Amino acid sequence: MTREVDVIIIGGGATGAGVARDCALRGIKSLLIERGDIATGATGRNHGLLHSGARYAVTDRESAEECIKENMILRRIASHCVEQTDGLFISLPEDGLEFQAKFIDSCRAAGIRADAIDPKEALLLEPSANPEMIGAVRVPDGAVDPFRLTTANLIDAKLNGAEVLTYHKVEDFIRNQNRIEGVVVRDMHTNELKELRAQIVVNAGGIWGHDLAAKAGVTVKMLPAKGSLLIFGHRVNNVVINRCRKPADADILVPGDTISLIGTTSSKVPFNEVDNMYVTADEVDLLLREGTKLAPSLAHTRILRAYAGVRPLVASDDDPSGRSVSRGIVLLDHATRDGLEGFITITGGKLMTYRLMAEWTTDLICKKLNIKKKCKTAELKLPGSRQKEERLSKRLHTIPTAQRESVINRHGDMVERVNMGDAAHRSLVCECEEVTVGEVKYALNELDVRNLVDLRRRTRVGMGTCQGELCACRAAGIMAEAGKYCSQRAKQDLADFLNERWKGMAPVAWGDTLRESQFTTWLYDGICGLKNEKKI
Amino acid sequence: MMTEHSEFNFEQCIKCTVCTVYCPVAAVNPLFPGPKQAGPDGERLRLKDKGFFDESLKMCLNCKRCEVACPSNVRIGDIIQAARIKHSRKGPGLRERLLANTDFIGSMATPFAPLVNMTVGLKPVKMVMDKVVGIDHHRTFPRYAFGTFEGWLKRKRKKQSKFARQISYFHGCYVNYNNPQLGKDFVKVMNALGIGVQLLEKEKCCGVPLISNGLIDKARRQGEHNTALLRQSIIENNRPVVGTSTTCTFTLRDEYPHLLSIDNADIRDKIDLATRYIYRILESGEVQLHFKKNAPQRRVAYHTACHMEKLGWAYYSIALLKMIPSVELTILDSQCCGIAGTYGFKKENYPTAQAIGDTLFRKIEASGCDVVSTDCETCKWQIEMSTSKPVVHPISLLAEALE
Amino acid sequence: MRFDTVIIGGGLAGLICGIHLSKRGQRCAIISSGQSALHFSSGSLDLLGTLPNSEEVESPVQALTALAEQAPNHPYARFDAERFVTLANKGAELLREAGIDVIGSAEKNHYRLTPTGAMKPTWLTFGGYVHSASPEELEWKSVALFNAEGFLDFYPQFLADEMRRKGTKCNVHTFNLPELEILRQNPTEMRSANIARIFDNEATLNELANQIASRIGDEQAVLLPAFMGINSQGNLKYLMHKLNRPVAVVATLPPSVPGLQVQTLLRRYFQELGGTYMLGDTAQGYQATQDKISALYTRNHGDIALKADNYVLATGSFFSGGLVATNTEVYEPLFKVDVCYDSEREKWYDRDLFQAQGYEEFGIATTPTFNAQRAGQPIENLYAVGAALAGFNAVKQGCGAGVSILTAIEVAEQILSKM
Fold it and tell me: With an 8 Å Cβ cutoff, is A445 touching chain C?
């Protein structure tokens, strides 16, 4: 089977999704290929911080400027993915105030509003912040939900003609002399191989872009850097709290939806570990130790889970040793760099700059395809962000508050596609995160859900306090009922989902988190007799 | 871990669903989200955004049966009440003020008790209360006594002062305005134990009706006033404070710190319920009670009021009732009668209240008892209205049985 | 307050211990910090289902030697076969006396049908639950399975497909009733216990019987999720009579209706025997003289101590608060008695949730007579029973209820023998 499109994009992270949308809005026919589910790499495994850029202001002016520009754009185009929380950079006695002055100057130079405020005022603004702070600066940080952001980009891309294939892995490139003409992909569910052809193939594979480039016959040297984070059981803070010092470990506490998270650690890991990373006890202890300096109450807050992501650090082309890395956006036209036509790599950068990365990439695609269309992604709002939440809330006033507000928070105006018209559809699948039967069905029907973990990324099923204890079984039943799989596979999916949750809980399984997991084991292993047939 | 008073107590919830089995409201009214959703689940959402507060939380009876059932020590009832206090935007109306200000209304009514009792019992008045004010016409307001308990005890001050041991009695509005006899019975029992009974300096309503009707500022002011009186009695005068009402006692001890942020840690242990206080004295063996011989046998069914269940003190009342030779005791399964103070008086809550109490009423009728006994005055109204049995406080039964 | 024995923990172990003692004339009090883990019952009580080496057990008694070899610290390792059978039979007898209808024996496991269609070896199954003598097949060749419309805590197709593999044809139906419509108005409260409550009304139960009758054919039996009989036990019998064939139930997600019923019946029996059950209270402190506990203090009773000759810890494991884990240690929170656990945190867990987890075997270290100890020194009148004990994995070995019941009776007899 062979198909042909203008552009094939490899990688379903925010960048790939952004490229798909940008292409679609410029009338370029694209196909996005992702080996697993969307937003599974670095996109879904970071702080979810809507950087103001302040963090980079002192050390990396260029990144800082990009961040604040994109920050303002995302507030506008992706309002349902963004929480405008603001951020504090607090100076603790051990940090001194020396850095603060330089920090404020650098922020202002980069165009970031930075106001020094009295520590007392900072405490009023964010009561959970460490009261021992000696200084505080307020900046326009925020929170962004990477799953929603990626989903919204893909919805818009598809509405404008793009195609998306999740669970398709690139096995090989179709190469004709010095030109890449397509890819051979494996359908991860059926194991079937398919040839897909395009004029241009974009490598937006994040850390996996290293291997993809190698498969295509070029070298893009990347260095996997593991960053671990902890998720706390509830919103500890409503304003982002950063340490006002040179960026270091565990110095950002971000509120995101119902939780808060602290990160990150930073350590180099070998490539063979990037697909399955475990957070170590030492990393957990470090995050807790440093985290309590930002917000002392973290010491007695329940920790839901720990997780780790991989930053794709790109070695600078001019330093073969690979020691010097670029944190900025790296767009490689392999035609000019390596003499390989039809292949582009977009990497580096960060979640914050996904749109800009997509713009640069699509500009290059347009140049190659000789298309003269301007980028519109900075102006056109994403699906979900086109109507005000208050208005949606009023329109849905008959639905009980918790279910109504939750579904609007998650889907913005796409809520119109969610059936909550009768009591059965308003029944809750996930009680912690208020996910209704109607919302689950919407995700199953319209958002490329293949398993429970995918469903979680679209809806927050299983992301709450109990980590899937009641909802997983309910959701598996609904998925099987909807014909997504047979009951046999539903059970294995259930086991996989619970194990995926356990992976994050195990590193922090003491106190109530251990009690929760013991209870989950009673239910699924004990009462239900559920088995896991897969090797972990 | 399992710490009851941590700031984030709601996080101890394991989502085990046990509380949902024991919520009397959710069982009969689908509009109430249930203790798990309204309590710990909802709290987490409200911390994210206060817009998640739902006015349906007012349907919570505050019976605390969810807390008693919770295997994780989550203060579910407190979480729900605290959320109402913090977020409710609906101000109290005339009805709420009428029901909440038990002591003010009582002090106005008692001098004219016969007239008031007759008036509020009149059918047209009941219909006006129902239609205009929203107090269900099935309800009978408790009758007001002619003259208050305080007035009575003041006249006995001299005699009471003669006892070597002294306590202060927190009589509550009900004893003061509606049932001074219970107060008199209490004084009789205490005197028999060699203890004199004093009034507090100027007791005000414990505030529970104010809390449940949304008059929080006033509740806090009264709470602070009462706590100062309690402190004066307990610390300055070395007189423990004893109450006959479970709800008043529970409020003074636990709702003050938990819901009104009034710190009473220094005196809480010296605020006691009558039956517990008496049990303690009898257990020590220093005094004995002498009961009438050959009193006619009475079959008594003991009903554990919700706040009694929460206090965990039914044991003491039951132990005292068991001591009375003329009492043949059965103990009813502990469950809510549905009234929950002023809750059941509200027109919209009437069907819920009666549905909640239904199985209890049937069990009472089937028990073959002569009287029901309970330590809570509002349970008394509800059971007397809904069954054929009279309801008598354990202290009154005790007093009656004494020689 | 003066008792002969005070039991801390009001679940299966605490109640069985209290009942056994009360029957022999002891005055007992049980303090229960909330409702117990019986609320998450499967409908069966396991004695020993699987050996630590994953071998499935046919006869718990006969597997005892192998168990003691593989898990020398297992509480059962202290019993010889005769004692084990005596204790198990005594336990079954006590349950029956309390009005709990159970089938099964310690000599031979039978199998319960789980909600995902697995067959798990078990000891005693509550009346009305689907079970079978063989893991390969069910008693019936065809059944009709009825679920309540919109009840999400039970997925019938799991069962139907597995039953088909075992040679039983299963037709799945849903039913609806006006009472369910009312319940469904609440987005969360369509739970097993709330559904069970609507069937307390005979007219509703009759309507259900009519609906089922109108839709079944010649199926040999009717199956339902376990949402029957929260207050009255006769519901299944009523349906059987109406439908003229066996009607049986399969467990649901919590709350467990049969578990609730067992809890209620055991508590009632204990109270009828004169026991004092204090729900919603937590033991918080104690007084000790040398090697004995002399008084216990609870949150509710404050300065009024509970005094007894003997004290029993039936406080459960982590979930129930009998054990507490922090990021550095595992301890028993009330008396701080000796606890067995691994000091290296990463050894507490296996990366596969469905494998045996190290933490499950942590628990209170006791003497051969189940006395708790501090720094290796036994406390003469303090015993530990049930899930709080060290040395076994209740879920993986399928022995949670058995350990609770057997150790509870054993300790009760230790206490009685001292009198």
Answer: no
